[in-house]
Amino acid sequence: MTARAVATWNPTISQQLTELRRELVIRRQVFPKWVAAHKLTQRDMDYRIACIEATIALLEGLPS
Question: How far apart are CA 8 and CA 24, in angstroms?
């Protein structure tokens, strides 16, 4: 994929929210396994999930 191809993408807020929600589902499934395997700390897991949740809340407050 070229930088030019990426630069032409302009996802809507709705599309961004869809991807963030998808990512949140994945993180909620995978991160606890990583914590159990000592690949990620509980604190880091909580922080990373909170960041995605906060971003979703922020975007939900914007006009579409």
Answer: 25
